[in-house]
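Lab meeting, action items carried over

1. Structure of the two-component assembly. Owner: GW. Status: complete.
Input record:
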Amino acid sequence: MAIKVRIPTPLQKMTENRAEVTSEGTTLKELLANLDRKYPGLKERFYDDKGGLRRFINFYVNNEDVRFLKGESTPVKEGDEVSIIPAIAGGA
Amino acid sequence: MDQVIAHAVKEYPREACGLLIGEKGQKSAAEFLPLKNVYDEMHRMDPATYPRDARTAYLIDPREQQGLFDEAEANGQEVKAIVHSHTDHDAYFSEEDRLVAAPWGEPMYPGLSYIVVSIDGGKFKEANEYFWDDKNKGYVVRKKERR
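Predicted assembly:
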């Protein structure tokens, strides 16, 4: 089962310049692990040193921020669209 | 720049944010698009991830951001710069700004500059534009404005 994943511009050099790829899994965690197998190195971009999803990378499943779903355990299924969006944020 | 300052003054004491969007590959004047700082909303929903408030932090809604980048691309345009204000602080590129702009030692948005506007006591104080310096692997100030 293929799930569409939108890759942000800064990570496209790791996905053979593709803005959209597919991956598999039943949760976001599995989907990201499979994505890293296909395109090695992505995992380091998704996770921080403590093994959590990076604070400034947003993961959306069908337009819902996974922080307000089940985080990494958010279920995914065929036909879903996952978006990876680096935050534009900061402050004094 | 007048529009940027006007927006930042209007939003004071909250940090203001927006994007400069212009024709792809051209250095001509870009249009300023003011955007909503959604930091307070996120702070209410998830204070652990978003511990500050909008007086010292900004966040552009990621879905709105994605839509605007897509729209610019479809129109032969591109985002030229990311703009935000610091209220009652100078227009430096803070540790937090740098962390988000280049979390793993390379720019998250290559080619884009960051414009920081200082609004002090409700009035414009200064603005600085920061660019990625590939040689030194960090953001450096290139353009300053004082009034």
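2. GW to write a short summary for the group page. Key points so far: Residues 3-86 of chain A form a domain with the Ubiquitin-like (UB roll) fold (CATH 3.10.20.30). The interface with chain B takes residues 6, 9-10, 44-45, 54-58, 60, 63, 65, 67-68, 83, 85-92 of chain A (CB under 8 Å).
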